[in-house]
Amino acid sequence: MNRRLYCYNRNIIFNMKFLVVFLSLAVFLQCEAKLLSRCELVQQLRSHGFPEDKMRDWVCLVENESSGRTHKIGKVNKNGSRDYGLFQINDKYWCSNTSTAGKDCNVTCADLITDDITKAAKCAKKVFKRHGFRAWYGWRNKCQGSLPDISSC
C-alpha cells in the first residue's frame, strides 16, 4: 500500500513539474512574438518598400488580419487551410506546411511567422500583385472607405 501511495505521489509531482515547464514555455514563446504598434508597422512596411500611396490600406489590412502580431496563426478555415503571420497569408496556395519552401511564394509557413517580416512582406506583395487587397477578408470587411490615420508616423 505504501509503495502505491509513493508511486502515485511521484506521478503527481512529475505531472506538476511537466505542467510548470509547459506553461513557462508557452508564456516564453508568447513573449517572443512581436506586436507591432501602428507606427512600428508603418516603419516596417516602409523599410520593405511598400508604396506610400497604399500605406494606409496595408496598415488597415494588417490591423484587421493579425492585429499587428507577427506570430499569429489563424484558426482552420472551412477548406482546411490556415493563415499565417502579420499578413495572414494562406497555406493553400502561398506557403508550404513542410520544412521545404514551396507553393507560390516559395516559403514555408514558418517563414511567415517570424519577427523578421522580410519573407512575409515579399509574399504579401505577390498576393497583392495577383489579387489586390480583395484577397484579404480583413481589408474587404473593414478597410474600404475607412482607413487609419498614419499622419503622426
UniProtKB/TrEMBL annotation:
Against InterPro entries, the record matches this protein to: Glyco_hydro_22, Glyco_hydro_22_CS, Glyco_hydro_22_lys, Lysozyme-like_dom_sf
Chain ranges of the Glycosyl hydrolases family 22 (GH22) domain: 105-123
**What Enzyme Commission number(s) apply to this enzyme?**
3.2.1.17
Which Gene3D superfamilies is this protein grouped with? 1.10.530.10
Q: Which reaction does it catalyse?
A: Hydrolysis of (1->4)-beta-linkages between N-acetylmuramic acid and N-acetyl-D-glucosamine residues in a peptidoglycan and between N-acetyl-D-glucosamine residues in chitodextrins
What Gene Ontology terms for biological process does this UniProt record contain? defense response to bacterium; killing of cells of another organism
Enzyme's top EC category = hydrolase
Keywords assigned: Antimicrobial, Bacteriolytic enzyme, Disulfide bond, Glycosidase, Hydrolase
MF terms from GO for this chain are: lysozyme activity
Family statement drawn from the similarity comment of this UniProt entry: Belongs to the glycosyl hydrolase 22 family.
Read off the PANTHER family from this record. LYSOZYME C
Q: What is this protein called?
A: Lysozyme
* Natural source organism: Papilio xuthus
The upper taxonomy is: Eukaryota, Metazoa, Ecdysozoa, Arthropoda, Hexapoda
